[in-house]
Amino acid sequence: MRVLIVEDEEFLADAIRARLEMDAIASDIVGDGDAALFAVEVNDYDVVLLDRDIPGTHGDDVCRALAADPEGPAVLMLTAAGRLDDKIAGLELGADDYLAKPFEFPELIARLRALNRRQFSTHPPVLERHGVRLDPFRREVTCQGRYVALTRKEFSVLELLLRAGGGVVSAETILEKAWDENANPFTQTVKVTISTLRRKLGDPGIITTVSGAGYAIR
Prior knowledge:
By secondary structure, the chain is of the alpha/beta class. The protein folds into 2 domains: about 1-120, Rossmann fold; about 125-215, Arc Repressor Mutant, subunit A. The chain has 8 helices and 11 strands. This is Two-component system, OmpR family, response regulator VanR. Pfam families: Response_reg, Trans_reg_C.
């Protein structure tokens, strides 16, 4: 999953990003509404964590613009306003969910994962294919019943491949979804991560390289 954090409080934005990284969630940070709209145009985000009161284009207008795109990312609106009428107003703007400050990080993570799961409503919360079982909420992976210890990035890549349901996922898509905007597009990181995943999952190998296209679990 890849999240765009739209928050002008730098300390809070950095804290959120650090916590998301602990849960294998890639994220980018922008501090105003104009930068948020631009970032969504050039990157493929699953969820936008949107502070309502931000400089530039107001958070309400950013939310309206994102909600107008049926194929756009989900929006989790974040604001200091916690009154019921404020929550209703945010949802009426098109936000998919609403979280008032201050909040607990476990709740934020749970809401982000719930929104991302809606994007893949045809898939069960626990992903299983060819003996590999991945639980996104417990961050556990087993292969043929054997526990497999993965790094955060390895977990993210495996989750992408499993969610594809046997379809091919390009190296560019993996890099975009599992890393952040600072990732070098010419890096061998994806190739190395796939190689490590194959070794950890063991035989029979289920991650297939599709020449010129990417990777798939088949």
